[in-house]
């Protein structure tokens, strides 16, 4: 009977005879005032209220107890049962206990630039313990150190540099590391001084350090660090530079976010080079962050922006050059942290909201956290469930940096407890069901508002399907499906929905002058049925076509209908008389083939011209066309046909005038073409021969000039040729005998 999600202040009337015939069951749910006005008796109205109880509410402690844990938050456990949308407010008290135990973890940057600070800390052990005893008699102190991730570009990965990342002149330098836990919580001053004296400086490449990795491991490794369950947890962070953010991990290819688990191997953080950290908001730790006074930009980052955003419970101070003022800084920062109380909650479902209103003068407005500057404060906590929840949930509320928490168990009230008499076969349900909050819960095989329908062996879903139009909503949401037939609801005006699927009603037709159907018709299933002499969607017009008639006497030029004394033209035609159609294709193109057929009996329609061209009711062959630009088309003989066409009344009705004379192109002179071709080929051949002749002539001329140049360069020598032999002449007298 009630929706799963109840509205604020919505109530239910569970009397059996409250619903009138044709009225939907949802009418039972309304505001208290509306139900009373409609005649409901107060005892019959079901309006669940929020339920609140405190299952654990121990009084606050004034001082730290020797045995057991002191109580600083009240109440400790509450149970809430809420109506969706209806908020509930209760008071949360907090009283800081005097002398509450404090665990202080000194976390120091051991990069090379902190060398002088390390020397100072080695001499300040006694002062640190005295300062801690001034805060509480139950104080413990621990020590840890950090540098940076041992990967490029943060640290030099050369094996020699990893083993000794300091300057060559530095004798005492320990290998590079990310975070090292040195000393667990202890109250022994000598043990603290001994471990701190063993520490040596280290180094890295860039300015920012691996600070967040160290803080996270110190916060989550509770057993290693030695955090007590009932103590204020402080981390004193000393460094002279900024810290790496998650985005810096991309430089070294480290993308995996920190999973807030402890990874300590031999007191060293083993996942330093595998994870990046940038979210410290859930750590239950307060941070005191002293910074070197010569790093002013870093101090502003820690103080105003990064550190306070990432760790809400944090304070920042300025160290002197040698850190001798660290004790005073810790005292001042602790006093500021202990005087400020910030209350908030852990993760919540999307449908649950929690807001806090501080009950202190400087508390400020309500919000998702409450802040007060006092040791004893109260907050109004308002919890709202926006919708019904299937099961009970629980969440914790408490001050940041403190162990004390309030456990809230939350469930929702989404059922109406009507306390109906237990009658199995109620007469109101025709003996076939039981009354539940004024409505019948029918036995198997029976359905209907009063279980009046017997479905027998039929499937109820198939009966309900008959009440859905086009597989839509059952009875259009305007009726109840009874035995496969829609029983329609009654409208507020007294009429009812009707139709097979309750799709019709007579109260939502269009109005004119604030009258349904203009007072000139009746509403029938969302449409107006006008009286004789009226028309229009709201019967707002008298029937008349006076403003729709053209000068020729036609109504809307035969290309539209007259509605409310205005033309409603066919698609493309324009008012007032539907004469022109700017978007339509021009008739010079669409009627060109018919003009060719009618005027010259050629073209694709020449065989059935009378049947294909009935849209041109009249045409004339004329010597001249009327003034204006004529239409022209080319026929099958490539001749241009000129004509003028005019549209008559009607959608496709034209008259045309066709020019008798066509403009045809002249035939080409074949002889001239052949002769010209021969002459052209001859001329081209001669030119080619001349061109070849010129090329050869130029080539010969070039060779001749080359020969002449070489001949001129020849020089003849006057020396005798060594192989030349002069000719000898021998004369012999054939008659000479030698005597």
UniProtKB/TrEMBL annotation:
<dbReference type="GO" id="GO:0030593">
    <property type="term" value="P:neutrophil chemotaxis"/>
</dbReference>
<keyword id="KW-0325">Glycoprotein</keyword>
<feature type="disulfide bond">
    <location>
        <begin position="581"/>
        <end position="584"/>
    </location>
</feature>
<dbReference type="InterPro" id="IPR057073">
    <property type="entry name" value="EGF_integrin_2"/>
</dbReference>
<feature type="disulfide bond">
    <location>
        <begin position="562"/>
        <end position="567"/>
    </location>
</feature>
<feature type="domain" description="Integrin beta subunit tail">
    <location>
        <begin position="588"/>
        <end position="669"/>
    </location>
</feature>
<dbReference type="GO" id="GO:0001540">
    <property type="term" value="F:amyloid-beta binding"/>
</dbReference>
<protein>
    <recommendedName>
        <fullName>Integrin beta</fullName>
    </recommendedName>
</protein>
<dbReference type="Pfam" id="PF07965">
    <property type="entry name" value="Integrin_B_tail"/>
</dbReference>
<feature type="disulfide bond">
    <location>
        <begin position="588"/>
        <end position="597"/>
    </location>
</feature>
<keyword id="KW-0677">Repeat</keyword>
<feature type="disulfide bond">
    <location>
        <begin position="525"/>
        <end position="556"/>
    </location>
</feature>
<feature type="disulfide bond">
    <location>
        <begin position="541"/>
        <end position="548"/>
    </location>
</feature>
<feature type="disulfide bond">
    <location>
        <begin position="221"/>
        <end position="262"/>
    </location>
</feature>
<dbReference type="GO" id="GO:0007159">
    <property type="term" value="P:leukocyte cell-cell adhesion"/>
</dbReference>
<feature type="disulfide bond">
    <location>
        <begin position="453"/>
        <end position="467"/>
    </location>
</feature>
<dbReference type="InterPro" id="IPR057243">
    <property type="entry name" value="Integrin_I-EGF_CS"/>
</dbReference>
<dbReference type="GO" id="GO:0033627">
    <property type="term" value="P:cell adhesion mediated by integrin"/>
</dbReference>
<dbReference type="InterPro" id="IPR014836">
    <property type="entry name" value="Integrin_bsu_cyt_dom"/>
</dbReference>
<dbReference type="Pfam" id="PF08725">
    <property type="entry name" value="Integrin_b_cyt"/>
</dbReference>
<feature type="disulfide bond">
    <location>
        <begin position="414"/>
        <end position="418"/>
    </location>
</feature>
<dbReference type="InterPro" id="IPR036349">
    <property type="entry name" value="Integrin_bsu_tail_dom_sf"/>
</dbReference>
<dbReference type="GO" id="GO:0005925">
    <property type="term" value="C:focal adhesion"/>
</dbReference>
<keyword id="KW-1133">Transmembrane helix</keyword>
<dbReference type="InterPro" id="IPR036465">
    <property type="entry name" value="vWFA_dom_sf"/>
</dbReference>
<dbReference type="InterPro" id="IPR015812">
    <property type="entry name" value="Integrin_bsu"/>
</dbReference>
<keyword id="KW-0130">Cell adhesion</keyword>
<dbReference type="GO" id="GO:0009986">
    <property type="term" value="C:cell surface"/>
</dbReference>
<keyword id="KW-0401">Integrin</keyword>
<dbReference type="Pfam" id="PF23105">
    <property type="entry name" value="EGF_integrin"/>
</dbReference>
<keyword id="KW-1003">Cell membrane</keyword>
<dbReference type="GO" id="GO:0019901">
    <property type="term" value="F:protein kinase binding"/>
</dbReference>
<feature type="disulfide bond">
    <location>
        <begin position="523"/>
        <end position="528"/>
    </location>
</feature>
<keyword id="KW-0812">Transmembrane</keyword>
<feature type="domain" description="Integrin beta subunit VWA">
    <location>
        <begin position="12"/>
        <end position="416"/>
    </location>
</feature>
<feature type="disulfide bond">
    <location>
        <begin position="166"/>
        <end position="173"/>
    </location>
</feature>
<feature type="disulfide bond">
    <location>
        <begin position="594"/>
        <end position="664"/>
    </location>
</feature>
<keyword id="KW-0460">Magnesium</keyword>
<dbReference type="GO" id="GO:0007229">
    <property type="term" value="P:integrin-mediated signaling pathway"/>
</dbReference>
<feature type="disulfide bond">
    <location>
        <begin position="437"/>
        <end position="475"/>
    </location>
</feature>
<dbReference type="GO" id="GO:0007160">
    <property type="term" value="P:cell-matrix adhesion"/>
</dbReference>
<feature type="transmembrane region" description="Helical">
    <location>
        <begin position="670"/>
        <end position="696"/>
    </location>
</feature>
């Amino acid at each position: 009977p009630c929706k799963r999600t109840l509205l604020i202040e919505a109530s239910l009337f569970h009397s059996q005879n409250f619903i009138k015939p044709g009225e939907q069951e949802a009418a039972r749910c309304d505001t208290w005032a509306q139900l009373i006005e409609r005649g409901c008796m107060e005892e019959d109205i079901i309006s669940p209220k929020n339920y609140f109880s405190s299952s654990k509410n121990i009084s606050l402690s004034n001082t730290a107890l020797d045995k057991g844990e002191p109580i600083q938050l009240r109440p400790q456990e509450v149970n809430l049962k809420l109506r969706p949308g209806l908020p509930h407010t209760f008071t949360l008290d907090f009283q800081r206990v005097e002398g509450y135990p404090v665990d202080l973890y000194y976390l120091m940057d051991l990069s090379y630039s902190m060398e002088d600070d390390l020397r100072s800390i080695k001499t300040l052990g006694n002062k640190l313990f005295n300062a801690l005893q001034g805060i509480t008699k139950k104080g413990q102190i621990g020590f840890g150190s950090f540098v940076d991730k041992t990967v490029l570009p943060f640290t030099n990965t050369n094996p020699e540099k990893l083993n000794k990342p300091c300057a060559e002149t530095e004798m005492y330098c320990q290998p590079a590391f990310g975070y090292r836990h040195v000393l667990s919580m202890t109250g022994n001053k000598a043990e603290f001084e001994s471990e701190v004296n063993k520490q040596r400086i280290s180094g890295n490449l860039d300015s920012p350090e691996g600070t967040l990795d160290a803080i996270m491991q110190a916060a989550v490794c509770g057993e290693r660090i030695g955090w007590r369950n009932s103590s204020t947890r402080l981390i004193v962070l000393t460094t002279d530079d900024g810290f790496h953010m998650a985005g810096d991990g991309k430089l070294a290819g480290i993308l995996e976010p920190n999973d807030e688990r402890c990874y300590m191997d031999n007191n060293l953080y083993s996942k330093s080079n595998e994870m990046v950290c940038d979210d410290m908001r859930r750590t239950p730790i307060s941070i005191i962050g002293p910074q070197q006074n010569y790093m002013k930009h870093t101090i502003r980052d820690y103080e105003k922006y990064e550190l306070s955003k990432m760790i809400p419970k944090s304070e920042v101070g300025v160290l002197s050059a040698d850190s001798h003022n660290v004790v005073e800084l810790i005292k001042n920062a602790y006093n500021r942290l202990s005087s400020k109380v910030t209350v908030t909650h852990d993760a919540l479902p999307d449908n649950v909201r929690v807001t806090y209103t501080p009950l202190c003068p400087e508390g400020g407005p309500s919000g998702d956290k409450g802040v007060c500057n006092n040791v004893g404060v109260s907050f109004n906590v308002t919890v709202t469930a926006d919708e019904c929840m299937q099961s009970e949930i629980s969440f914790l509320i408490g001050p940041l940096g403190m162990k004390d928490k309030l456990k809230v168990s939350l469930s929702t009230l989404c059922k109406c407890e009507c306390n109906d008499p237990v009658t199995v076969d109620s007469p109101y349900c025709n003996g076939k069901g039981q009354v539940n909050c004024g409505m019948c819960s029918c036995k198997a095989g029976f359905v209907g508002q009063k279980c009046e329908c017997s479905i027998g062996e039929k499937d109820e879903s198939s009966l309900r399907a008959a009440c859905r139009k086009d597989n839509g909503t059952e009875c259009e949401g305007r009726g109840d499906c009874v035995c496969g037939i829609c029983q329609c609801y009654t409208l507020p005006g007294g009429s009812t929905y009707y139709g097979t699927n309750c799709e019709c009603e007579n109260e939502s037709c269009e109005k004119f002058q604030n009258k349904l159907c203009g007072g000139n018709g009746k509403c029938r299933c969302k449409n107006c049925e006008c009286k004789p002499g009226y028309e229009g969607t709201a019967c707002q017009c008298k029937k008349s076509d006076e403003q729709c008639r053209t000068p020729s006497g036609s109504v809307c030029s035969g290309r539209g209908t007259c509605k409310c004394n205005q033309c409603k033209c066919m698609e493309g035609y324009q008012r007032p008389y539907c004469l022109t159609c700017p978007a339509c294709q021009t008739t010079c193109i669409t009627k060109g083939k018919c003009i060719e057929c009618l005027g010259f009996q050629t073209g694709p329609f020449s065989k059935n011209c009378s049947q294909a061209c009935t849209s041109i009711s009249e045409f004339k062959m004329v010597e001249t066309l009327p003034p204006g630009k004529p239409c022209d088309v080319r026929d099958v003989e490539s001749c241009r046909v000129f004509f003028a066409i005019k549209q008559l009344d009607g959608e496709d009705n034209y008259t045309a005038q066709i020019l008798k004379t066509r403009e045809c192109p002249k035939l080409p002179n074949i002889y001239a073409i052949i002769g010209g071709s021969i002459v052209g080929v001859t001329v081209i051949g001669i030119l080619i021969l001349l061109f070849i002749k010129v090329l050869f002539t130029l080539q010969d001329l070039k060779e001749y000039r080359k020969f002449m140049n070489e001949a001129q360069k020849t020089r003849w020598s006057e020396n005798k040729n060594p192989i030349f032999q002069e000719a000898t002449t021998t004369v012999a007298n054939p008659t000479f005998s030698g005597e």
